[in-house]
Amino acid sequence: MARHLRFIARTVMVQDGNVDTAYKNLNRMLTQDGIIDAVKRRRYFEKPCRERRRKNFENCRRIYHMEMARKIAFVSRTNREDPWLGC
Amino acid sequence: MVAYINLRLLSATGKLLRLPSIHEPEEVWPSQWSRGFCMVLVESVPSTLCRQLITPLNVNGTASQCGIRRLPQLRPLFLSAVSHQEAEASTGKDFSHLPPMPGQDSPLRWAGKKFEELPIIHIKATYNNTHIQLTDSAGQSLVRTSCGTEGFKNSKKSTPIAAQTAGISAAAKATVKGVTFVRVVVKGLGPGRLSAIKGLTMGGLQLVSITDNTPVPHNGCRP
């Protein structure tokens, strides 16, 4: 990252000497950004064919999980106004 | 009161990319915050911790908090084009997880030095070894240790314990040169990544910030 300004991105300050928390925070940030994943994947070359298949699979998986979570949230509503009011 | 900065990116493809919100796990933060937090909806911005498009927004009591990974509902996203401001220190200690930017003059000092003048410890954690180098803020090298210089050979170098000993010895040499507060830059995902930092703390150095500088090519050389 020689072309970027240093100490701006991917940086966590250490509060009260709590290095473990800071490192955990940093790790969480990186995983959520997908950087750790990308670095692990780039250790060995991934052929373009496999890469396309994996991306497709991850897209489908994401869509499926989002929809399933929506469905579960919908079905598990208990406290709501009476939908059959007036009937 | 700590101000939290939550960022969420919605990329142009509609994929929900999330920038992590940084919060201390011990605090119960929904009930304690009374100041604004930042939420931003930025389109077509790469999902790094880009701070240029962060907006402050005083939305006290808005329920949407993207800190915890909840069900992926779309939260109310606010869009504005104000530059990032750090949290104002009101009463008590106000700690920002993000480092002070070079342009800003923040009151934080460590041993009388500003953040930009602190010496840097570079930790290169490869899969086979861990190198630790202490440089000053300009880049002049002061101390250099690695698992190999500590006497480990071959496969023993790629262990966390070797990294820890390298960290301890680097910290010892640094204190001889009169260094107390350092910033840490970590590069690579190796076995010695965390234990080198631990070794530095065990050796007596005080860490101010941890940066990750792992090289991520945007599809450059073939690995």
From TrEMBL, chain A:
Pfam families: Ribosomal_S21 (PF01165)
UniProt key word Ribonucleoprotein: yes
One GO MF term attached to the UniProt entry: structural constituent of ribosome
BP-aspect Gene Ontology terms: translation
Any one GO cellular component localisation term in the record: ribosome
Alphabetically ordered keywords of this record: Ribonucleoprotein, Ribosomal protein
NCBIfam families, per database record: S21p
Family: Belongs to the bacterial ribosomal protein bS21 family.
Protein name: Mitochondrial ribosomal protein S21
Native organism: Gambusia affinis
TrEMBL record, chain B:
Record's keyword terms, sorted: Mitochondrion, Ribonucleoprotein, Ribosomal protein, Transit peptide
Localization: Mitochondrion
Gene3D superfamilies: Ribosomal protein S11 (3.30.420.80)
GO biological process: translation
GO CC entries: mitochondrial inner membrane; mitochondrial small ribosomal subunit
Single annotated GO MF: structural constituent of ribosome
InterPro entries given in the database record: Ribosomal_uS11 (IPR001971), Ribosomal_uS11_CS (IPR018102), Ribosomal_uS11_sf (IPR036967)
Thylakoid found in the keyword field: no
NCBIfam families in the record: PRK05309.1
Family: Belongs to the universal ribosomal protein uS11 family.
Protein name: Small ribosomal subunit protein uS11m
Higher taxonomy: Eukaryota, Metazoa, Chordata, Craniata, Vertebrata
